[in-house]
Design brief:
Elements (H helix, E strand, L loop, with lengths): L9 H22 L4 H18 L7 H15 L10 H14 L1
Helix pairs in contact: 1-2, 1-4, 2-3, 3-4
Length: 100
């Protein structure tokens, strides 16, 4: 049985960015009925588990700050910043950071 390779490959990064775009659009649509915070909660849990399954730690300051900032921006839909695609930006930054 082959051992699973840890880290992010190009396919995983593409799927993560696609998922982040989906969550950002869905959150933007559900913000009008005051349910966008729920999408932010599921997005945060999804990406946290996904990164942990791929062997990436959030204990590095840059990763912790990036993920935490995106979580805070997206959890509070009344902030003017909540219209920004914070999950997509955070996932791109974290994926590039893991490849470097």
């Amino acid at each position: 049985m082959s051992e699973e390779k840890k880290g992010l490959n190009s396919t995983t990064i593409a799927l993560m960015v696609s998922g982040a775009l989906f969550y950002d659009v869905l959150q933007w649509l559900l913000t009008f009925i005051f349910m966008g915070w729920l999408v932010g909660l599921f997005a945060g849990l999804t990406f946290y588990i996904w990164f942990k399954l791929r062997g990436l730690s959030f204990m590095k300051p840059k990763r912790f700050i990036t993920f935490g900032t995106a979580s805070i921006i997206e959890m509070f839909p009344f902030l003017p910043l909540s219209a920004l695609p914070a999950w997509t930006s955070a996932i791109v930054i974290l994926a590039l950071d893991s490849k470097i």
